[in-house]
Amino acid sequence: MAAFVEIQRLTKVFAPRNGGAAVAALEGVDLAVAEGEFVCLVGPSGCGKSTLLNVVAGLEPPSAGDVRVNGRRISGAGADRGMVFQEAALFPWLNVIQNIEFPLRRLGVPRAERRARALHFLHMVHLSKFAGAYVHELSGGMRQRVAIARALAMDPKILLMDEPFAALDAQTRDILHEELQQIWQETRKTILFVTHNVREAAYLADRVAIFSAHPGTIKRVLPINYPHPRDKESLLIARAANVILEELKDEVEKAIRRQLGEEWQRPADRVSRSARLDLGRGI
Amino acid sequence: MPSPQDVLASFARGLSDGSFLIGTAVSLRRIAVGYGISVVLGLGLGLAIGRFRLLEDTVGSLVFGLQTIPSICWLPFAILWFGLSERAIVFVVVMGALLSIVIATDDGVKNTPPLLVRAGRTMGMRGVGLYARVVLPSALPAIVSGMKLGWSFAWRSLMAGELLFVSAGLGQLLTVGRDLNDMSLVIAVMLLIVAVGLAVERLLFGTAERVIRRRWGFVGVRG
Ligand SMILES: Nc1ncnc2c1ncn2[C@@H]1O[C@H](COP(=O)(O)OP(=O)(O)O)[C@@H](O)[C@H]1O
Ligand SMILES: [Mg+2]
Fold it and tell me: CA A260, CA B192: separation in Å to the nearest integer?
């Protein structure tokens, strides 16, 4: 039986921009995601994570290969796939509740139900008090909460999240991790979540897809077999994060070497030597 | 120089003999027609230029070129085309306001954050619906500031036109004052022009700017 989200041999090549070369952002990516699964995508920057999400969202057409959701090949963007971007992408001319209702109107949801649904999800992200506030009055974390509520209110089958917490401070991010885990358990959405934060990936994901760059492919898919809700402080999460980090290190180094050339070397030796020299100081 | 009392007296006389009221009414009617045409044409053209590449390359560059011509320079052209008629002066008013509205609208459309358009698309919106419900509201602050700029250009063009092209209106009252060598009348009419201009501006844009400041957190001034 086919998986809920079925990505097969997906290739995406961007046409050359003003005289440059064509960019192969993704090459032959295979990924199958089960319904209700939480999959994190990690990898060095520029390896095509956002591109993959954009193709699944229908914002970019694939160059080759196939993306199927629930057995149907996707064609263009649609409200069955909600997207949360790194910046909240809220509409400044609408207040919080109107932002959440906005997509519902187009979906033909009657007015009274629109309001009720919006309030329900606003409550879920703990912003009921801010229903009438405008975007410029909200903090970054609050804006992401609204963006999440807006995406959920459309009742999409899939939630696509592209580094949604990357621009937030560490404390806010930690709280939102816990809340997202809870929301996911309540709503049972299928989530594809891009991050470069290995702890975030280890904490949230059922499986972590680790990318390698140039061309962008999935190098390894790491299952994190540990029941939700999880405890962020647990050793298992830390261990999983370390495994991801090790896999990533090579990739990130490769990416940097690609950019800077062979001259570049990891300063690892120097660091460990100076660390040794520091031993015993201040005792 | 006349004393403030003289100016006040001229002002009172102008009000009581009806000449100020009639002048104001004539000027307001002209600007209502001219500015109304500018807004309709300007929004339509600006939205179309912002949307279609072909129009931008053709009409768009023409608009930028024409913008360098002070609108009163259109008066000889308008008189040759329409004759010494109301239409000639309305044409000058339109040329005063139209281009800045076109440019500001096009600018607002072009400055729509691509992220908002992408967000709209992930909600299943596209085409005209996306343009009307995402791009247009996003461009609103720029459009309002362009309309306000257009308003002040239109008002100035009208006064200049009425000064040169004698037939009623506030600008013509200035000419009367000059012909009578009546400085206090001239000053009184200038004060009236300022008052009417500001009052209409407040009336037209006060609410819009308040709403924009409340929602966006800034006044819609751009460019
Ligand atoms: N619209 C585009 N046009 C051309 N190249 C693009 C475009 N979007 C992304 N790319 C290129 O594709 C590669 C992958 O980008 P992206 O998916 O954003 O990576 P990531 O999200 O993993 O950092 C990069 O080399 C980037 O420069
Ligand atoms: Mg990215």
Answer: 69
Return d(Cα B91, Cα A103) in angstroms, integer.
43
- What is the residue type of A192? L
CA neighbor of A147 nearest in space, from A185, A106, A94, A105: A94
B3 or B53: which leads in pLDDT = B3
* Residue from the list B115, B123, B215 with its beta carbon closest to the beta carbon of A103: B123
Low-confidence ranges of chain A (pLDDT < 50): 269-270, 272-283
pLDDT digits (tens, 9 = 90+) for A52-63: 999 999 999 999
Mark yes or no for CB contact A59/B121 under 8 Å: yes
Residues of A within 8 A of B133 (CB-CB) are 106
Q: Model's pTM, two decimal places?
A: 0.89
Residue to substitute in A23, A47, A256 for testing ligand 1 pocket (most ligand atoms within 8 angstroms of CB): A23
Bond preceding residue A110 cis, omega within 30 of 0: no
Above 90 in pLDDT, residue B67?
Answer: no
In short, whether A48's Cβ falls inside 6 Å of ligand 1 is yes
The residues, any chain, with a CB within 8 Å of residue A124's CB and separated by 6 or more, are A149, A152, A183, A186
Residue-level pLDDT at A278 = 46
CA distance B209 to chain A (A): 13
CB atoms within 10 A of CB B37: 17
- pLDDT tens sequence across A136-150: 999 999 999 999 999
CB A54 less than 6 A from any atom of ligand 1: no
Q: Is A45 in the pocket of ligand 1 (CB under 6 A)?
A: yes
Residue closest via CA to ligand 1's atom 20 equals A46
pLDDT mean over B207-213:
92
CA distance B146 to chain A (A): 18
Burial of residue A231 (number of CB atoms within 10 Å: 0-12, 13-18, 19+): exposed
Domains of chain A: 3-80+156-281 (3.40.50.300)
Q: Calculate how close chain B gets to A213, using CA atoms only, in Å.
A: 25
For residue A1, the model assigns a pLDDT of 60
Contact A85 B119 (CB under 8 A): yes
- The per-residue pLDDT for B39 is 97
Domains delineated in chain B: 4-213 (1.10.3720.10)
User: Is residue B123 less than 8 Å (CB to CB) from chain A?
Assistant: yes
Residue B119 to residue A89, Cβ atoms within 8 A: yes
Question: What is this model's ipTM?
Answer: 0.89
Q: Which residues pair with A207 in a beta bridge?
A: A39, A223
Report pLDDT for A274.
47
Query: Could you give the 3-state DSSP secondary structure of residue B34?
Result: helix
Q: Is the CB of A25 under 6 A from ligand 1?
A: yes
